[in-house]
Backbone:
């Protein structure tokens, strides 16, 4: 786990009109009326409506200051006006879209460096959907859905490197992505796979996370694998994976990323 501030990693399609449990968690983490959220719309091809929507939501939830920046290319990422917008931010929020846009546009730029510095200083960074996938050191950028694990079911690339030792997948149960997450972990058994359902999030502080939202988080741990044929099988053949550990954690549960154990059980009332 990278030392620094809090991460809120959302599986996408979070409630925006009802109780807004997850977005209220974001508003609280940002500091409420004293906070400043900066919405980064780089991932989406429709930045204006995305930025407007989240700005209105966070204003409604009582965040004192909300700003939006759309960085469309690497030249934008070097402009001082965008860096100045981040000054004083207590929370940075990455929208959904295409996670490869986030990393290919921001990676190695002044903006990308500033993001890591701000996280190191203790601010909260949030990502939903594609923004969630980009949080980790290595991210899933594509892969077959609703299929058994196969060597060719997943393509990976470097992420923003805010969460070390993990790989994130989102819209998880809704899009049948268990096979591709298992494949990602089989190829990198030292990495924890974290699959986050829609309207669900993990809140990461230090080496632990808690689950919030209406559905569940699936953790795939390959450290106990006793056998895998991932290096020998043909790309289109199903993988053999033995003694892989899978945890399913709804709201009220948490996970210790260092100990690789579920924790923080809190029974929920009916």
Residues:
């Amino acid at each position: 786990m990278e030392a620094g501030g809090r991460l809120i990693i959302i599986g996408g399609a979070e409630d925006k009109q009802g109780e807004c449990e997850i977005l209220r968690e974001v508003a609280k983490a940002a500091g409420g009326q004293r906070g400043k959220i900066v919405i980064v719309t780089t991932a989406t091809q429709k930045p204006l409506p995305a930025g407007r929507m989240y700005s209105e939501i966070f204003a409604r939830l009582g965040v004192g200051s909300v700003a939006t920046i759309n960085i469309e290319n690497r030249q934008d990422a070097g402009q001082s006006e965008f860096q100045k917008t981040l000054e004083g931010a207590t929370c940075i929020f990455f929208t959904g879209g295409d996670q490869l846009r986030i990393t290919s546009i921001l990676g190695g730029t002044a903006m990308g460096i500033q993001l890591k510095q701000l996280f190191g200083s203790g601010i909260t960074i949030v990502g939903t959907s594609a923004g969630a996938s980009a949080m980790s050191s290595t991210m899933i950028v594509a892969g077959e859905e609703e299929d058994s694990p196969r060597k060719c079911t997943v393509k990976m690339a470097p992420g923003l490197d805010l969460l070390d030792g993990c790989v994130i997948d989102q819209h998880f149960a809704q899009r049948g992505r268990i096979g591709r997450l298992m494949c990602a972990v089989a190829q990198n058994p030292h990495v924890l796979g974290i699959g986050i359902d829609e309207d669900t999030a993990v809140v990461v502080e230090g080496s632990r996370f808690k689950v919030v939202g209406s559905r569940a988080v699936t953790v795939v741990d390959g450290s106990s694998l006793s056998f895998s044929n991932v290096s020998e099988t043909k790309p289109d053949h199903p993988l053999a994976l033995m003694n892989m550990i899978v945890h399913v954690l709804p709201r009220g549960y948490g996970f210790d990323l260092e100990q690789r154990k579920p924790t923080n059980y809190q029974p929920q009332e009916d």
